[in-house]
């Protein structure tokens, strides 16, 4: 009853967003930061996070306030440990009129069967968006009203918050993940990087575009824990690290800009062949690129990071003499370039699995392997190691110095890679280490296979809910007949592949097409887009 009262009083400060219905999408982010909708959604997520923690007997739950790669004026909120059925609970809470929120909260307690005597613990953080402080205040109000123990980690990258949650929940168990502090994160990455780099040296320097987001200050901090260039470490030049001007966030820079525009940020001063990387606004996406000798932009996206990591870990497992004991798999979505899938299956001889869009699906599929390498083409991804993999790697008896070296490197990788979630800073260190080990420049990395030209178009439709996808979102079962048209179209092109699906984050349908030549890919994309309209 006290909580019911407190919720109602806290909720009375907000306005119910007239005429709008909140739905949980691919990433569960309603977007415009100043809308009443977002206030009530954040309040609902705060209430829900406490319930979820109680349900899990007081496990720490994370709440991140960010809109990732989206414009500075947007914002959003995500639960660090998402579960499909909790999305429907969030929807219920967020759509309740404010004077009824406490009633819905009570109904949920019954529906989910929550023991209210259990402790509830929540950590939260935010990116650098101006609206973040207001939204964190709302979270605070929801958590206070429901008597939840919480910690505010202020500014953090999304993966840093995931790291904190994992550390807190494994403290005192055999799976202890690390020190649950921001410094602990840097120390862990720094130590692991040194271990992986023991016998090699990074060539040249790396320019990192931080999207003018929270990744900028955090990268500056991380660098303090890395070996200097003289010690064999990376010579990192940090650019687009302005977090003072709030409008510059993701503006003409960052991983999403680079991937979708297929060009370097206009502000880039990188010379030809210089190695460059871009993070997104909350530093959970990473892409690499360079300008070649002919001034042509060359992108190394998530597919490239996945193939690089899978090939390296496969080699290490063989060199360590444990290849037979580690089942390695690569998880992609339908947006992965067909050439990368071919390369994984035919050259790396590893299984390539396709899942629905959204990292929760990829992460889940990755967990079915001892080593699960998963990346979305847009640069979000990581590598997971199963319990069996960790045991195998840590207990293997090396039979030669070469085996020992490979094993030590693998051990280092299990610490270097953020296994909780895709992490641009951790992925960046991984890529740098692999390139150093292979002695590769970005040009050699790009040379492993040739991407098929591809095109992604966004099609505005009257009602995107009629587009129902099946087969890992590669086929449409509704509207009737459309898939047959797409099949017929793609069969006319050399290496043609195309699919359409409703976006989970935008009110639009996305059409993807690839084919043997640029003109064929463009043509196929526009014909399929016309069929969708
Ligand atoms: P939607 O809008 O459902 O296509 C987009 C990205 C996903 C993922 C989510 C979450 C593409 C084609 N889609 O999803 O990969 O990153 O946003 O941010 O890039
Ligand atoms: Zn992001």
Automatic annotation (TrEMBL):
Entry protein name: Phosphoacetylglucosamine mutase
Task: Give the family from UniProt.
Answer: Belongs to the phosphohexose mutase family.
Give yes or no: UniProt keyword Disulfide bond: no
What molecular functions are annotated in GO for this chain? magnesium ion binding; phosphoacetylglucosamine mutase activity
Cofactor annotation = Mg(2+)
Catalytic activity annotation: N-acetyl-alpha-D-glucosamine 1-phosphate = N-acetyl-D-glucosamine 6-phosphate
- Which keywords does this Swiss-Prot/TrEMBL entry list? Carbohydrate metabolism, Cell wall biogenesis/degradation, Isomerase, Magnesium, Metal-binding, Phosphoprotein
What is the superkingdom listed in this entry's lineage? Eukaryota
Function of this protein?
Catalyzes the conversion of GlcNAc-6-P into GlcNAc-1-P during the synthesis of uridine diphosphate/UDP-GlcNAc, which is a biosynthetic precursor of chitin and also supplies the amino sugars for N-linked oligosaccharides of glycoproteins.
Bilayer-spanning residue ranges:
none
Q: Which residues form the Phosphoacetylglucosamine mutase AMG1 domain?
A: 181-287, 301-440
Annotated source species: Talaromyces stipitatus (strain ATCC 10500 / CBS 375.48 / QM 6759 / NRRL 1006) (Penicillium stipitatum)
Annotated substrate binding lies at 376-378, 501-505, 510
Question: What biological-process terms (Gene Ontology) are attached?
Answer: carbohydrate metabolic process; cell wall organization; UDP-N-acetylglucosamine biosynthetic process
Q: Which Pfam family, any one, appears in the UniProt record?
A: AMG1_III
Q: Which residues form the Alpha-D-phosphohexomutase C-terminal domain?
A: 456-530
Q: What class of enzyme is it?
A: isomerase
Keyword Cell wall biogenesis/degradation belongs to the record: yes
EC number assigned by the record: 5.4.2.3
Pathway it belongs to?
Nucleotide-sugar biosynthesis; UDP-N-acetyl-alpha-D-glucosamine biosynthesis; N-acetyl-alpha-D-glucosamine 1-phosphate from alpha-D-glucosamine 6-phosphate (route I): step 2/2
Cofactor comment text: Binds 1 Mg(2+) ion per subunit.
Origin organism lineage: Eukaryota, Fungi, Dikarya, Ascomycota, Pezizomycotina
